[in-house]
Design brief:
GO terms for molecular function: hydroxymethylbilane synthase activity. Its EC number is 2.5.1.61. By secondary structure, the chain is of the alpha/beta class. The protein has 3 domains: 1-99 and 205-225, D-Maltodextrin-Binding Protein, domain 2, CATH 3.40.190.10; 106-192, D-Maltodextrin-Binding Protein, domain 2 (3-Layer(aba) Sandwich), CATH 3.40.190; 227-309, Double Stranded RNA Binding Domain (2-Layer Sandwich), CATH 3.30.160. It is built from 10 helices and 13 strands. The protein has helices spanning 16-31, 44-47, 53-56, 64-71, 130-142, 157-165, 176-181, 218-221, 227-242, 289-306; strands at residues 7-13, 35-41, 77-81, 93-98, 106-109, 124-127, 149-152, 171-175, 190-192, 206-211, 251-258, 261-268, 278-285. The protein starts with 6 loop residues before the first strand and ends with a helix. Bound molecules: ligand PBG.
Length: 309
């Protein structure tokens, strides 16, 4: 195996969160003795701010331009929020490593109310994801709150918080991980436990993508990988893959590892909002990612047997 170049280039989006994540990887690699430069780029997903992502092409939107930089040799690595990474990468690319997960939970941000329970009459809640919309709707239905409206909320984290602060929404729901990474943890009014609002596959984890032929990078990246996170996200992503996962499907999948046992929960919502929310769970002793994926496939089959398409 050839050794890694002593200087590495990380392709990254230029949102504050993406840059934080790239800097985080840079610091880890520097501590291992590598020189690291960042190559900032704008992706289509960053440019389209007026439409719901699921309508314009989904997860790949944030990844494509970075892959072109990898393919052309302008960059060695691309750092992604794992939940934005498609389940199957295009030919020629590989997910080289998944790092230890930050808080995987969703967060409630509001100056007006402490949670769903005390939303004012007719309140508007903002969220960017179909999964959150479907799970929020289910909670609101349980609470008998047909007066509350859920409205789309796009843009990077700062934009979303600004829209909240301007009063367009009574509350918004975001990933806790992004807020914490940017030092905005104090904005979190409460976090939803996974049994209240099940996170998205890979939420809170960072993935590093490389060109599949770059075996010279494997040794450099090995120390950044987290084995427990890898098992969890392998199961979560397998659920999504088995159901043909895309942003236009409201799907949640979340796994925790305790001892050698992986516990996986998943939920599927009808994009049209007609069918009821479906839930499935499973657990297994797992020692490798193939066993974790097998658990994911089983849980996905359970959802499909209940009617998930
Ligand atoms: N879809 C955008 C996105 N991708 C990753 C995160 C947060 C960080 C993470 O989950 O790792 C966010 C923002 C959000 O969902 O609020």
């Amino acid at each position: 195996m050839t050794s890694a170049p002593s200087s590495l280039v990380i392709a990254t989006r230029e949102s504050r969160l993406a840059l934080w994540q790239a800097e985080h990887v840079r610091a880890r690699l520097q501590s291992l003795g590598f020189g690291v430069e960042l190559l900032g780029m704008t992706t289509l997903g960053d440019q389209i701010l007026d439409r719901t992502l699921s309508k314009v092409g989904g997860k790949g939107l944030f990844v494509k331009e970075l892959e072109v930089a990898l393919a052309e040799g302008r960059a060695d690595l691309a750092v992604h929020s794992l939940k934005d990474v498609p389940m199957d990468l295009p030919e020629g690319f590989a997910l080289a490593c998944v790092m230890a997960r930050e808080d995987p939970r969703d967060a409630w941000v509001s100056a007006v109310c402490a949670g769903l329970e005390d939303l004012p009459a007719g309140a508007v809640v903002g969220t960017s994801s179909l999964r959150r919309t479907v799970l929020l709707r289910a909670r609101l239905a349980e609470l008998g709150r047909s007066d509350v409206r859920i409205e789309p909320l796009r843009g990077n984290l700062d934009t979303r918080l600004r829209k909240l602060d301007e009063g367009q929404y009574a509350a918004i729901v975001l990933a806790a991980a992004g807020l914490k990474r940017l030092g905005l943890g104090a904005r979190i009014r409460r976090v939803f436990e996974p049994d209240e609002m099940l996170p998205s596959a890979g939420q809170g984890a960072l993935g590093i993508e490389i060109r599949a032929d770059r075996h010279d990078l494997e040794a450099a990246l090995a120390p950044l990988a987290d084995a427990a996170t890898w098992l969890c996200v392998s199961a979560e992503r397998a659920v999504s893959r088995a159901l043909g996962g895309s942003c236009s499907m409201p799907l949640a999948a979340h796994a925790v590892l305790a001892g050698g046992t992986l516990k996986l929960s998943a939920a599927w919502g009808d994009p049209e909002g007609v069918a009821p929310l479906l839930r499935a769970e499973g657990s297994a002793e797992v020692g490798d990612s193939a066993q974790a994926e097998a658990l994911g496939v089983r849980v996905a089959a359970d959802l499909r047997a209940q009617g998930a398409r």
